[in-house]
Design goal:
Layout (H helix, E strand, L loop, with lengths): L19 E2 L2 E11 L11 E6 L8 E4 L3 E8 L7 E4 L23 E7 L4 E7 L3 H4 L5 E7 L8 E10 L14 H5 L7 E6 L3 E4 L2 E8 L6 E15 L2 E8 L4 E2 L4 E16 L6 E11 L25 E9 L12 E3 L11 E3 L3 E9 L5 E5 L4 E4 L5 E5 L1 E4 L4 E8 L3 E7 L2 H5 L3 E6 L1
Bound molecules: copper (II) ion.
Copper (II) ion binds next to loops.
Length: 433
Amino acid sequence: MNRRQFLAISTACALLPATGRAGAMRLRAEPVAVRLLPDEEGHGPAEMLGFNGRTPGPEIRVRAGGRVSVAFENGIDRPSAIHWHGIHIDNAMDGVPGLTQDAVAPGATFEYDFAAPHPGTYWYHAHHRSWEQVAKGLYGPLIVEERDPPKVDRDIAVVLDDWRLTPDGGLHPSFGNRHDFSHAGRLGNYARAFFSRDRVRAGDRVRLRLINAATARTFKVRIGGGSGAVVAQDGMPLAAPEPMGEPVLAPAQRTDIVLDAANPVTFHLLPRGEPYPLGTLAVEGANPAPARGPVEPLPPTPVAAPDAKGARRLTLAMEGGAMGGRHRGDDFWAFNGRSGMPDAPWQRFARGETARITMRNDTAFPHGIHIHGHHFHELGADGTPGHYRDTTLVDPRKSRDVLCVFDNPGKWLIHCHTLGHQASGMKTWVEVA
Ligand SMILES: [Cu+2]
């Protein structure tokens, strides 16, 4: 990390654009010019990609059980598609070119229309050349509200990202280089948070919806200015709130926090050196009737119970990368000795079947593994179920078992969400019939 380019945030962060209430909405991918660095530094804007003129794209909100209906217009000069990350979605709407749809050609439109069954914090992002299109800004928050939402004073999406910038504030052109692909991915030299609103009152109880939109960086975040508790991971409620601590979000992961704000709410990235500022929610005024009492759990989301005893036992070994000694054509990475998308699925499941998958990281790098269309239970070393997630972070030379009920019919991608790893081999798919 180049400290000189790793600048502090000195101005209020830009707000996420206004909420798009899902009816039939238009979502147009297009080039956008974004000033990521503070104005007074004399930097130019970065040539990026966005939705409806902005990155992050508009915050889409829908009530649980409601439909998201989006006319996606591809206004960029390459094919694209949108994936609705974490939604237990109708397979045809999952947005994976080559598996669930054809890529949407430049100038063409694709109608996405699907039910969002489970409340929680999700996000949408490009799923074609995603190592480039997501890195350039093609993503946005997707919030599925509880039918009876918990009472909070503010509900704020916090989108985390980093970018590799040139000294004048543009995006560094080194997209898709083989060093990034074979190492830790395209790590940025500048990071910040985008907020859907940037002010709270002293005494407000605030729901923070953290979303890691970065293509490679795992964010460990220190949140100051109040006391909080974690209430959901990857959109799914925890049975009981957990201490806020310093949340760790692998690429694509989300963490919901309910925080009682006393002072400006500060966000810092914890790299190896000193904490790096990501942004601040300013305090304006005081809440005349602050919430009291402990943070309550979110209403539970009913999901299929896994059959732990009858589960099919599988191993998904992550292999390759620099120091991993595996090279096959342009691919650096593999699952179980196989790089890239196989013609036949890695596994076929009968609908409702449970699998216990040992995700074993035989590489020198961390990987956040995402299963499309499903969540799964992370299992502790003694086999007890932990968080119920759609993306799990496995550290180098470590392994984690997960228990997944494959109850959503269709063809589902499984891949590393370090998107350069995905592009260079770390992906496969399963079919649920
Ligand atoms: Cu990876």
